User: What shape does this take?
Amino acid sequence: MNKDIQAINSMIQQESVFVEKLLPEIGKVIIGQKYMVERLLIALFSNGHALLEGVPGLAKTLAVRTLSAAIQTKFQRIQFTPDLLPADLIGTLIYDQRSGEFRTKKGPLFSNLILADEINRSPAKVQSALLEAMMERQVTIGENTYPMDDPFLILATQNPIEQEGTYPLPEAQVDRFMLKLVIGYPNKEEELKIMRLNAGETFPQPDPVITPEDIKRARLAVSQVYIDEKIERYIIDIVFATRNPSDYKLDDLTDLIAYGASPRASIYLSQASKAHAFLRGRGYVTPEDVRAVGLDVLRHRVIVTYEAEAEETTAEDVVRKVLNHIEVP
Amino acid sequence: MKTAEILNNNIRKNRQRIKIHTLILTLWIISSGLSAVQQTQPEQNINISISASVDQIKIPLNRMLKLKVTLAWTGEPGTFTVLNFNDPVLSNLEVTGTSTSSRTEAQKNGTRVIREYEYSLRPEGLGMAYVESISVKVLNNQTETEVTLQTRRIPVEIIDPVAEKNKDRNRLLFIVLFLTAAVITFLILITIRKKKKRKSSQLSMIQEPLEKKYLDELRNNWDLDNLNLQEDFSALSRLLRRFLTEKFKIRAMEATTEELIEELRSTAMQENQIQSVSDILSRTDEIKFSGVRGKQQEFTRFYTLIEGIVETYLHKPETSIQPSDNNNGEETL
Assistant: This one.
């Protein structure tokens, strides 16, 4: 056992070396937003998808494009609009007059990194098509089923303002995103650097420093990160506290939570914690890793009551309270 | 001689005549005086009377005087109509209020109608005061004749003011209230002082044995020659976290090691002690969560470090505690 852990530790330290090359490369283009970049890598390494929420102009699209360029992968950006159709995403069958047969025309979903920009601007049928591909990692066109590329990471953005004419994602569909990231504004120094960077004649381009193969190896390494039973029980306690707050002496939350986090939350919290430990070059998960990703995994999985809304208490407030209340092992 | 007798007789007769006239005059004066004492002046052939009276003939300067003027007749209420009722002419008195009332009484010889005019008068200065004659003109509706009725002048003596009973009562009430408030304030202050004293003594009683309690627990729970290392490292880190929670009133049990170290930096803990806590917790975290086994020498070192930290506070119980804000669970690389 001891030897295994040591082997995992050394393997993780070896496999996570490329992160040290990747982050400065992304940093050439993306100033600040380390929180977002790190979470994108967590989603990438733990085979999850991420929903990014932030006002326009916070480099959400640029971050995804830069990440794609640094990883040497295919990148597609799909702007979701009210008239978009499922076939515009997944592809369709086209009749070939020369051969007299139907030919499959694959949609933009067949790529490695997909930026679904303003996902809430398209109706439910388009969202469903995307979310099905996210979970099943395959798409059926006509009579044939096609697996998605690997790595396959969907980064969807949604704008918290201008809600008129939008189709908010149902809770069941939001639950399929591993992380929901709330992107904030850069600080003064960062914004100064952004301003200077964009004032130059040429805009820096990231060099591809890792390959899809590196990603696959990293994923394998992440899956082997050791997670102790004490940490697993800590995760379970956090998730259960969102369902039965009174069992954890959080009686004041009982009337504020309509639905607690799903079992998917426990799965993703464990996976994201492992990926976070991997990014730190550690072969085991600590409570720090769980706390670091807890809010991003849980904020879209806890549904608050009307009472909470009336008191202006958000799901994020509830999750924060739970995380600050549960004793670390 | 005869002339002298005649003169004497005339003088005697005149004297007798004068005596008779004086008697008649005296009787008239007495009869008219008696009627004045009754303060009535009945009108011949007319059954209506007026009277005026005051409630006191001697009144202190700081008291009020009541003047009542009563007009009464026997018959129907409409028999007489008051045409003119002049307000009383007053000297050394001032009218402060008036009221009128009217009533009828059934009597043996018929109905009696009574109208009362009441005045509240305030004395203006010491000495005599007077209510001058009051004149009332009435019309007899049966005979269509007008009659003027008058009351007599009423003297009133204004004497030195008397002490106000209510004033004394108010002053007494004020003194009682003041004393009560003073006593209550005093009692509250005493209670607060006692509570503070008790609290501080309790606090010092609690604070003192806190370190001792943890030292006892440390020394009683572990036999350094006989250790179960995997569990003991975990228990040791929990003991340290519990001590920090109680000592600095921070949420050390819920905070991760990084968060806890950050929180400790906002307390009075010395930097070298914080570094020791960081070393202990980081290594125990590694042992707890990575599955690696800790060494006995490590355990002994941590044990000694914790003992040293707790003992420091045993000798220095006063500690400024500044709990910091909760960590929001977000962190970046």
